[in-house]
Amino acid sequence: MKRDEKRSSKSRVVRSSKPSGTVRIISGRFRGRKLPVLDKQGLRPTTDKNREMLFSWLMPYTIDARCLDAFAGSGGLGFEALSRYAKSCTFIELDKYAAKNVADNIQLLDLSVEQAKIIQGNSLDKLNILEQSYELIFLDPPFNQNLLTQTIVRIVEKSLLAIDGVIYIECEGQGAGYSVPENWQLIKEKRSAQILARVYQRTS
After folding, report:
1. What residues contact residue 11 under an 8 Å CB cut-off, 6+ apart?
2. Which protein family is it in (predicted)?
3. Which carries the bigger pLDDT value, residue 164 or residue 173?
4. Taking the model in full, what pTM does it have?
5. Per the count of CB atoms within 10 A, which of 8, 92, 143, 173 is most buried?
């Protein structure tokens, strides 16, 4: 083998579509279950600590809720909601391998199509095809891509957040410069150097 060929083979990066990590469901009917997730750049499942905090906030709103996980990634937020007796969850994920991973975990948990479904594609496009409103929406997009403002506009235009429904928004700690409608009331907030997490409720 030539020296430059050897160097080239060493520097080659192979992208794997196989799960190489896990996310643990904290509470509810699937408590303790560990779901396989991809270990890939840009995919950052919400930590156990942050999910526990979030779902303590969302406790009054989760049971029987129709949920939308608009940037699903690992699907950890949607699966946690389903474990805590949400009625259903629609997952949207751009990456085809991550979307397949979510689909595999839907099967692993033996969830019906009425309970959980995955839509693979660009969230900004796929929000336009949704035909119902949701009582609980998760917005945790990739950081530093300025996706929140456009996504919120789509949600408002399509009336995807039900009246009295709640929406969780997570972004960079310095804030992503987004704004929300006047009828979205801030009810919870936590800020750190890395993450800004907020829950709003639609009042009218």
Report:
1. none
2. Belongs to the methyltransferase superfamily. RsmD family.
3. 164
4. 0.88
5. 92
Q: What does the chain come to in residues?
A: 204
User: pLDDT (tens digit, 9 = 90+) per residue, 113-127?
Assistant: 999 999 999 999 999
- Residues forming a β-bridge with 118: 91
User: How many C-beta neighbours within 10 Å does residue 136 have?
Assistant: 25
Nearest alpha-carbon partner for 199 in 66, 57, 79: 57
Please give the helix or strand (H or E) that residue 119 lies within, else none: strand 116-120
Rounded alpha-carbon distances, angstroms, from residue 80 to 29, 39, 89, 120, 191: 10, 19, 10, 20, 22
In the chain, the domains with their CATH numbers are 16-202 (3.40.50.150)
| CA–CA separation, 88 and 50 (whole Å) | 22
pLDDT, one tens digit per residue, over 54-102 is 999 999 999 999 999 999 999 999 999 999 999 999 999 999 999 999 9
CB 173 within 8 A of CB 193: yes
